[in-house]
């Protein structure tokens, strides 16, 4: 007896905030019919029956957690978040959206020689400690949840590790970049079990998005 292949609903975890609009635009260019109120709604779960999808709107840092636990089959997450969270998800596609980079920055008065026990403020404690350990530098990490650039100005930290996009936040707060750490873009991530159980939909989604990312149809 041949097993009938049924199309199940695919649950997609989307990051609220700066990546969201670009991710939605990418899905629309891949011809997924998302409801027009998608961007404006305050709802955290949005069903798109026509696309065969349910979207859950999460904090960017939490997207890999939803995908790892399988409550979302797939998701869109920044490389920064993936490096920080180290969740058990497959990173299958570089979406090449929201490009930025991770950098170390400080006030121009920062003096490395006078720096005995350097304090680093960051939203990315794991990523930052790995980076400085690899550099053979001992530092104290101070975890913050945002407005990282404030920390050196008020004397909470000597340096910061944060993402830089336009560079405006650093500039307007009088900070200078000391080191570029790594480029960052958003990635398409998949739950390993979903990849087996819903391979039909997931493969198709990866193919359609990939065609747009690579400058194919609809882009
Ligand atoms: C991010 C990042 C920097 C800023 C960089 O913060 O943490 O502060 O954007 O962007 P720019 O180089 O274009 O100025 P976000 O706006 O996400 O808010 P947050 O400070 O609350 O994390």
UniProtKB/TrEMBL annotation:
Its EC number is 2.4.2.17. It comes from the Bacteria. It catalyses: 1-(5-phospho-beta-D-ribosyl)-ATP + diphosphate = 5-phospho-alpha-D-ribose 1-diphosphate + ATP. CDD domains: PBP2_HisGs (cd13595). Residues 59-210 form the ATP phosphoribosyltransferase catalytic domain. One of its GO terms (cellular component) is cytoplasm. Lacks the C-terminal regulatory region which is replaced by HisZ. This is ATP phosphoribosyltransferase. It comes from Evansella caseinilytica.
């Amino acid at each position: 007896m041949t097993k009938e292949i049924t199309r199940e609903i695919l649950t997609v975890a989307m990051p609220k905030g700066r990546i969201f609009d670009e991710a939605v635009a990418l899905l629309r260019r891949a011809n997924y019919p998302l409801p027009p109120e998608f961007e404006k709604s305050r709802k955290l779960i949005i069903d798109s029956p026509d696309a065969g999808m349910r979207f859950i709107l999460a904090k960017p840092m939490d997207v890999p957690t939803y995908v790892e636990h399988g409550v979302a089959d797939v998701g869109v997450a920044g490389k920064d978040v993936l490096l920080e969270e180290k969740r058990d998800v497959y990173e299958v596609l570089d979406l090449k959206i929201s490009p930025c980079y991770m950098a170390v920055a400080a006030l121009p008065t920062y003096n490395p020689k006078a720096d005995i026990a350097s304090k680093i403020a960051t939203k990315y404690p794991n990523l930052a400690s790995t980076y400085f350990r690899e550099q053979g530098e001992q530092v104290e990490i101070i975890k913050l949840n945002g407005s990282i650039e404030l920390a050196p100005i008020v004397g909470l930290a000597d340096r910061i590790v944060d993402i830089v996009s336009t560079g405006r936040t650093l500039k307007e707060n009088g900070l200078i970049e000391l080191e570029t750490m790594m480029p960052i873009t958003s990635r398409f991530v998949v739950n390993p079990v979903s990849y087996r159980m819903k391979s039909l939909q997931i493969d198709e989604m990866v193919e359609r998005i990939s065609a747009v990312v690579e400058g194919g149809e609809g882009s």
